[in-house]
């Protein structure tokens, strides 16, 4: 019988702390969490890949790969001798996406035994892994790295749980169970359904509860777990712990190693260490399939931002398109081949009614070709589908990207405002609008008679422009109004933002505007400081530097800065000397204005709203949506430098001004949990202040940073009750959700009325949802259904945003849900490599004087998807291929030849779904140069995998100490 939903969700909220490695945090600090395991594995494998790349390019690499790796150390080592300012924001952000997705498995798949390798579901668990791993590889092929990270985080969870929930560690194993990620390998030695595996623990001591017979025979089992029923097959082990009812039944007790105080707590660290190594092995498997460059992209090891344009392509936009082309080409040509080259390019054209298609590529030339194809045509009847285009960009770009929207028309799809706001807040992306001629009294696209009523069209344009200003403000971007002829002066903001390590030092929006003075601290790490001021032409200002120099708005080239003006934007590039200390800007305007101060620095921070599990044992999960007015909010803050320490985190609303000071709870790994209580209504931004690594804040070492995205508390809560995060092509998912009216953080049971509901997905998949829900007892329930077409590609992610608005239209809240499209994998077998001959003789003492060769037949079998790539992974020879057909199977014949100075070869063969075969060979009688046993013959991993793995390791040990697996 299915448990009632409310019980399930009560239990789910308790779950994270009781049935898995702790997802994110531990109270006692002694237990290792999924977050620790995932981060350690990512750092280790990323460092190894960077080391291998450095070795292949003959560059030095000095980082020791051990348990003391930090994001900063790895990024710095991987960046070689780069002289630009380094930022670890992207890497930190990517790792966070992976561990939050990992942690979500405990919430969403709480009752799925496969996702945790409970109940001896080894085959089921491996199927889950196989599907997800193939989807990660497919995501990378689609260059959809965001999707890849989300799916990879989920896969890591199941893989890691195996080491806590099974008896693998108790069997004395010291290396990962590779069959879990090698689906064509048989899983042997599984304890059968009738095999007893445990006996009673004695007086609560479970150290010896696994049956000796089981251990002697080396049989694999895992604990049964159930929170509703104590039923389990006779003689089987339980998971253990207070929530596991099965562990109260004979045989009593459990075997999990989730924390140091679990049933098998003394083995916790061993299990966690093996889980790290297993995760490293999984990452190596993915690396082999996708290649080193793409692997590093997947990990987010990138200095640079994406270049993201959303462009109106209606008839009047040809000048704007030409300018977008010019500025993007300039950025591309200037940065190509440097670490500042954009990590990806995104282009979303829109007009009416069409939006897209979205172009997402890492290939600068492909982007150039796509932007070259744009032409302004059609239109005539404004408005256009601007927000739909922006929605696409927001879900495709990595978090914290800056998106530039070019348009000269109002948005026709203004009803998407709440969805777009939700996505801006969820992704923390910054949206800057280049609004050309929007406020001009005569629109060039006007068709005589149609938009001739200048008065009314202008009024409407003011309203329309306000929508863009609101979105810019919510995101920390700018709404730049320029004439088409001035546009090229305004696009310098795009060049400014596409340099590396851009940080936000200070930002304020005053609306309605009033004269005000603002102070901000500039630290010694800041380079290329730039100030933007937007406002009407009557705005004046005065800037004073720490040394007492000042410059007013009437001076374009003064003692402090060089100023350029384009439309409503003034850009001041500060001179580089004497910047450290307290600055002041004095603005005089009674119209809306904004001030933004940026620079380049490696000192920055990332943050995510998290929420405690109910009945908490100290753990949290990611919170999507706005915090509650009058309630508490917790933020996980990560600073991106080892050299500084955060001493103060506040929520700041300049309109009050109101400042809510957070309570800091530092974690072992340098992250900080910050809690704010009783948050009032307002438009806040997160501000951090700090000093050097000891926290000292003298005038010379204090720093401040400010998040771009606004945090707006809401009195509405929107929660979805997910029972899965992956959907197969051609199937549907139902998402029940609850909207509640909240007062001081609790449901207001006296509230009544309706909420307007809007459920939007970014892929235009068929979706059904109520357009409003009616409260009873302060709550209202609804269900959204989403259908994924059978043509959807595995490895994509669909983002579903559910927003709810109160009937007075004064308040909204939302939740953002991301589902991966994952298809069942039919080709689970690796390609086959059959070495048919080795030729040549390398016995001569001068290796360069002779050659050797190898011929191998390669295929992906009758049911395979086919060979996708064949590359030489190790060896300095040349590879030629030809194809033939044998027995209805396509055979690739690989002919490799090399000098005797390169006496071994490793070929990498990848099939179309990413199954990888490594195929090694070496010349006969190469004893003198390789120290391999005499008369060793060519070898292939096609058959007898096990023995070849051993051989491969031997080779690694002898020749390539770093190619371990
Ligand atoms: C440093 O970088 C330059 C330019 O990228 C390169 O030519 C040089 O070889 C590098 N030096 C080292 C030691 O990596
Ligand atoms: C994990 O791998 C590292 C590096 O190969 C090795 O030194 C360590 O002993 C392994 N840990 C376990 C628990 O097997
Ligand atoms: C795996 O098991 C299947 C069925 O038991 C068997 O047919 C197959 O040969 C085995 N494969 C290997 C590589 O041992
Ligand atoms: C295990 O313990 C339970 C409860 O103490 C007891 O009823 C049961 O007989 C024990 N089983 C064995 C095999 O000793």
UniProtKB/TrEMBL annotation:
<dbReference type="Pfam" id="PF25107">
    <property type="entry name" value="VWA7_N"/>
</dbReference>
<feature type="domain" description="Hemicentin-1-like von Willebrand factor A">
    <location>
        <begin position="307"/>
        <end position="484"/>
    </location>
</feature>
<keyword id="KW-0732">Signal</keyword>
<dbReference type="InterPro" id="IPR052577">
    <property type="entry name" value="VWA7"/>
</dbReference>
<dbReference type="InterPro" id="IPR056862">
    <property type="entry name" value="VWA7_N"/>
</dbReference>
<dbReference type="GO" id="GO:0005576">
    <property type="term" value="C:extracellular region"/>
</dbReference>
<keyword id="KW-0964">Secreted</keyword>
<feature type="domain" description="VWA7 N-terminal">
    <location>
        <begin position="69"/>
        <end position="296"/>
    </location>
</feature>
<protein>
    <submittedName>
        <fullName>von Willebrand factor A domain containing 10, tandem duplicate 2</fullName>
    </submittedName>
</protein>
<feature type="domain" description="VWA7 Ig-like">
    <location>
        <begin position="725"/>
        <end position="822"/>
    </location>
</feature>
<dbReference type="Pfam" id="PF23619">
    <property type="entry name" value="Ig_VWA7"/>
</dbReference>
<dbReference type="InterPro" id="IPR013783">
    <property type="entry name" value="Ig-like_fold"/>
</dbReference>
<dbReference type="Pfam" id="PF25106">
    <property type="entry name" value="VWA_4"/>
</dbReference>
<dbReference type="InterPro" id="IPR056475">
    <property type="entry name" value="GBD_Hemicentin/VWA7"/>
</dbReference>
<dbReference type="Pfam" id="PF23560">
    <property type="entry name" value="GBD_Hemicentin"/>
</dbReference>
<dbReference type="InterPro" id="IPR036465">
    <property type="entry name" value="vWFA_dom_sf"/>
</dbReference>
<feature type="signal peptide">
    <location>
        <begin position="1"/>
        <end position="20"/>
    </location>
</feature>
<dbReference type="InterPro" id="IPR057615">
    <property type="entry name" value="Ig_VWA7"/>
</dbReference>
<feature type="domain" description="Hemicentin/VWA7 galactose-binding">
    <location>
        <begin position="503"/>
        <end position="602"/>
    </location>
</feature>
<dbReference type="InterPro" id="IPR056861">
    <property type="entry name" value="HMCN1-like_VWA"/>
</dbReference>
<keyword id="KW-0325">Glycoprotein</keyword>
